[in-house]
Amino acid sequence: MSVVVYAPASTANVSVGFDSLGAALSPIDGQLLGDRVLVEAASGDDVIIENVGPYAHKLPADPKQNILYDCYHYFVKQYAEHHSKVLGCVKMTLEKNLPIGSGLGSSACSVVAALEGLNAYLDSPFNKEQMLIMMGELEGQISGSVHYDNVAPCYLGGMQLMLQEAGVTSQAIPHFEDWYWIVAYPGINISTAQARSILPAQYRRQDTLEFGRNLAGFVHASYSKQPELAAALLKDNIVAEPYRAKLIPGFDEVRSYAAQSGALASGISGSGPTVYIVTPVLEQAERTKAWLEQHFIQNEDGFCHVCKIDEQGTRVTGTSL
């Protein structure tokens, strides 16, 4: 028996919702922007791990340092505690399609694909809420703190608002289906820890009030289908982007180009260095992609995609890579 699970890339924060908002992304040309994991039966005393894909060479050579190793042993422990059953040995192959430290939820992709792969391999002994909690906890162990703004959209799809109250971790909010999200990764890496360390320890009261107003307004505009208002609120002049911008070469030029081209909004994806620009016009999206490829991408590791919000989230795609 074998199963392959695909987990899409995601943009966390979406500027206006620091640690509170995230969206799954899907290139309109059908390319994979996310990781795949193959889980299949094997024999032995421990999990067998293999890496393939364009960014496999960036992963640790030691299998015990691989994120899938932690996923397997974490899942085994949870499976034994909740179902009193033993998983047994499997082989897990990670097709790494996202660069590490890109701001597109790379670690979340691997965690979500691996854990959902193991769950699907066993005919889903855990429900979605249980899986989401497990994914957040494990990804938090890797990144240093538990944040669901990559894990939730990657797993559930759509645009997700983090709640973490009354037994509800995350819920989808409406999004504008005609918006194109152009995401560009320049080819350099920024660690989440580095991007968090640059932020202030405290914010002024008036800034926190503005942050809350903008996020609430964006959610309201999304529900009431007011794209102009939503786009006007899709910004971060307070919490993260003013500080993280200095970590991203060419970010100011990207913002300037977006404004001059008439784009709806632009910002940093997650902790960066990936940036995004939003437009409702496909022709403009293609022009923006060409500009970013020429002026923002720095090396052969970089890329740019025109995306829509991925509605499906993580899914089983077959039995072989």
Can you describe this structure?
The chain has 321 residues and is of the alpha+beta class. The protein folds into two domains: 2-174 and 310-318, Ribosomal Protein S5, domain 2; 180-308, GHMP kinase, C-terminal domain (Alpha-Beta Plaits, 2-Layer Sandwich). It has helices spanning 67-83, 106-121, 128-143, 151-156, 192-197, 205-223, 227-233, 241-244, 251-261, 282-295; strands spanning 2-8, 10-12, 21-27, 34-41, 48-52, 90-95, 159-165, 168-173, 180-185, 265-268, 275-279, 303-309, 315-318. Strands 2, 3, 7, 8, 9, 10, 11 and 12 form an eight-stranded antiparallel β-sheet that branches. Strand 5 (48-52), helix 1 (67-83) and strand 6 form a beta-alpha-beta unit. The protein is globular, with a radius of gyration of 19 Å. The mean pLDDT is 95.
Question: How many helix segments?
Answer: 10
* Mean pLDDT rating: 95
Radius of gyration: 19 Å
Distance between the termini: 14 Å
Q: Which range best describes the helical content: under 10%, 10-25%, 25-40%, 40-55%, 55-70% or over 70%? A: 25-40%
Instruction: Encode the helix/strand succession as letters.
Output: EEEEEHEHHHEEEHHHHHEEHEE
- Strand content is 15-25%
Spans of at least 5 consecutive residues whose pLDDT stays below 50 are none
Task: Give short descriptive properties of this protein.
single chain, 321 residues, alpha+beta, Ribosomal Protein S5, domain 2, Alpha-Beta Plaits, five-stranded mixed beta sheet, 13 strands, 36% helix
Layout of SSEs?
Elements: E1 2-8, E2 10-12, E3 21-27, E4 34-41, E5 48-52, H1 67-83, E6 90-95, H2 106-121, H3 128-143, H4 151-156, E7 159-165, E8 168-173, E9 180-185, H5 192-197, H6 205-223, H7 227-233, H8 241-244, H9 251-261, E10 265-268, E11 275-279, H10 282-295, E12 303-309, E13 315-318
Parallel strand pairs: 5-6
Antiparallel strand pairs: 1-4, 1-13, 2-3, 3-7, 3-12, 4-6, 7-8, 9-11, 9-12, 10-11
Organism: Agarivorans albus MKT 106
Binding site for ATP: 99-109
Pathway: Amino-acid biosynthesis; L-threonine biosynthesis; L-threonine from L-aspartate: step 4/5
